[in-house]
Amino acid sequence: YARTEAFWHSSQSTVLLGYNSTSVVTLDLKTAPHVLIAGTTGSGKSVMMHSMICSLLAKNTPCTAQLVFIDPKMIEYTVYNSVPEMQLYRHCITETNEAIAALEDLCDLMDERYRTMKAKNLKTPDGPAVYVFVDELADLIYTDKDCEKYLVRLAQKARSADIHLILATQQPTTKTIPSILKANMPTRISLRVAQGSDSRVILDHGGAEMLKGKGDAIIKYGSSVDEVRFQGAYINNEDLNTFIASHKTDSSKADKAAAWLESRNRKWKKHTCAIGVITLCFWWIVFGIILICG
After folding, report:
1. Beta-carbon neighbour count of residue 98 at 10 Å?
2. pTM of the predicted model, to two decimals?
3. CA distances, 205 to each of 176, 212, 220, 227 (Å)
4. 1-5, 47-51, 58-62: lowest mean pLDDT where?
């Protein structure tokens, strides 16, 4: 506990990545603000993603964080289906057409938050932070280019709307990670990759191909030249399932999820009602002008 005390006293957006010889290694996703993760099979990439997700679930409520999972492989994130922090989408998205629709919805949410911030003169948006976890980015990019379009838009603009991308891939090549997307993903984590060219794509230099695997990783923090090598935290399937089962049955979180969803629906109804009144007034004015001119 002594080694992880700093993590538990950090912000709600801070996740536990692992440790090195001197300290626990953490990452604040709000300052990241987007993360690109690469690693071959057996490198520990999936375990690291689970560690990040569990960190968010342990420190947040549905009022402070909402999670979206896109998993073309259909195996990594389905375990999180129906956790209280999944109110935007109640299940893990596994189909490409659903993924495109979800990314488009997130772009709409981003635009809506910016309009609200402008109208209310706010610097930060109302509502919870949104964390979007995408496993196997290459599958999405290869299958449909619309995914790339929406991901680039979110990477460019979503930070101030408190929407954050965490993208993972086994194939960090120039074809699967377009340069404009890479330029807007300043924080990058590389586990062991297949070859030096993959390392240069993710870290801008070679070396990641010589990592030992099983969680051995290098993180590059944003625009900083500093890199940190660390051992990723380990969570086995049994512990993961136990934690999620306990989290799902936490009545206080379930109540907060219901309250947040009800508040969201109430705001939407108000917004819809206001639009209806404005539309009605507009047509009354038009009708009056027609009568006067006639």
Report:
1. 14
2. 0.85
3. 18, 17, 11, 12
4. 1-5
